[in-house]
Amino acid sequence: MPLQNDDAEVIFELTFPACPDRLKLVRTLVLEAARMSGLCDSSSRDLVIAVDEACQNVIRHAYCGDPEGKIILEFARTADSVVLKLRDFAPLADVEKIKPRDLDDIRPGGLGTHFIFELMDEATFTPPLEGDGNLLKMVKRIG
Amino acid sequence: MPLQNDDAEVIFELTFPACPDRLKLVRTLVLEAARMSGLCDSSSRDLVIAVDEACQNVIRHAYCGDPEGKIILEFARTADSVVLKLRDFAPLADVEKIKPRDLDDIRPGGLGTHFIFELMDEATFTPPLEGDGNLLKMVKRIG
Amino acid sequence: MEHEIREQGDVLIAVLSGDIDLEQAPTARKVLLECVGQGKSVLVDLSGVGYIDSSGVASLVEAYQAARKTKSGFALVSVSVGAMRVLELARLNKVFTIHDTIEAGLEAS
Amino acid sequence: MEHEIREQGDVLIAVLSGDIDLEQAPTARKVLLECVGQGKSVLVDLSGVGYIDSSGVASLVEAYQAARKTKSGFALVSVSVGAMRVLELARLNKVFTIHDTIEAGLEAS
Ligand SMILES: Nc1ncnc2c1ncn2[C@@H]1O[C@H](COP(=O)(O)OP(=O)(O)O)[C@@H](O)[C@H]1O
Ligand SMILES: Nc1ncnc2c1ncn2[C@@H]1O[C@H](COP(=O)(O)OP(=O)(O)O)[C@@H](O)[C@H]1O
């Protein structure tokens, strides 16, 4: 298995369709991988929240609910962090528009990106290095 | 996401390196997917055993312990069964040699393939349709 | 997610359990809005909720706002550690009325 | 997998817990062979073993055979449901001596 870059070791790569019922699978897998990567229990659970929200946004916004959409989640570990890459093949997103609502403006929705930015040490949306679609890179430091 | 064939729906596809420490991840994911596919609890656990043994054999025999080996597990569901495909990219295996020891000849080892054949309704080793490597197709009926 | 509605005098207790995620949030939303629609005070028991995500939180917010419109009571009780983490992240722990136990919730209703 | 060795009179109790899989079987093998190597009767407590696969079973078989060679006692106790399923599949439930409880194991040792 090729190393991701630097000294990153790929733990797994999961491909799944953009269906809400797959999120439970993703959460279960990410929780286990986070623990085996050395994240403490609460950080592992926080990582799960961020990944769930990121997948949810791909399902709802990138693919607009189309369950034919394909999502790839890569989970890698470096010496001091876990690095997750979430890839979709939807039209290029307008990164400027990816932001949470004002938290004081209480209404349903608008929280997912806030959770992601709050829980991850790094979260960057970019077009993928090759091919179409979007890539969200999320980093959480260990310890 | 393309349908596998007939009416099979792909639940997930997991790619991981041939390392023993990934088996726990695989078991966790397969157990959850089995349950969501409608397998009862004991069948789900039996499926986990078969998949674990199959992965283990790829790690130990197909890749001879080389952790650079790549394994792909596809988990699909049809109306009445789950269909798992385990793919490796190792040299073509001699299918004739893939068989358990005589169960009465008590010694360490030689049980994995017995578990697989006993626990699955169907288990067939074939070269993959395209590319090199080996493909083990396992079917477990639901209900 | 599973749900169960109990009636205790003038109060409806909606016991949600399991995961309230993108798949299950529509059910949670429907259950909660139906409870609020009856005009009684509603207590939402979250003790058995292992996981709730932003879409689950959205269904709570919607029910909360519907209850405010009709000036009926709406509170969360026995919020699990996992659910509380998410409510805190959303800074909704200060917005919702939250009781530690059903008894405390009933007393305040 | 975790392990703990307890000494009770002439008997060693090896308590294994967690998953005994391809990753952990070498540790289980080492622990069990060291116990058997001391020449005492060995009881292997499998109550906390959630999962054991063929490589874990192989380490049990190896320790069992080592014990037979030196004619010392070797038995499994409190085998979890999951572990028993695998032993039955391997038809080793009739080969190993298996006791329901540690007490029964100690009595027979
Ligand atoms: N993966 C994505 N692709 C495209 N747009 C996105 C994506 N994620 C978020 N967005 C945009 O950012 C907004 C805020 O997202 P979020 O904070 O998760 O709240 P919500 O999804 O409830 O609107 C969304 O309404 C959407 O316009
Ligand atoms: N995926 C595989 N690729 C190549 N050979 C295999 C594979 N799986 C099993 N075998 C062969 O079948 C034999 C029996 O396998 P198994 O019953 O799992 O017991 P063990 O792995 O302990 O030998 C192995 O020793 C090996 O020669």
Q: What distance separates the N and C termini of chain A?
A: 26 Å
Counting DSSP E segments of at least 2 residues, the number of strands of chain A comes to 5
User: What's the total count of β strands of chain C?
Assistant: 5
Content-based structural category of chain C: alpha/beta
CATH architecture of chain C: 2-Layer Sandwich
Order of helices and strands of chain A: EHHEEHEE
Spatial ordering of strands, largest sheet of chain A:
1-2-3-5-4
Number of domains of chain A: 1
Mean pLDDT score of chain C, rounded? 97
Chain pair sharing the greatest interface: A-C, 25 and 22 residues
Beta fraction of the residues of chain C? 25-35%
Number of helices of chain C: 4
Structural class of chain A: alpha+beta
Tally of separate helices of chain A = 3
Rg over CA atoms of chain A: 15 Å
Query: What is the overall shape of chain C?
Result: globular
- Helix share, percent of chain A: 25-40%
Write a concise synopsis of the structure shown.
The complex is a heterotetramer, with 2 copies of chain A (143 residues) and 2 copies of chain C (109 residues). Chain A is an alpha+beta fold and 143 residues long.
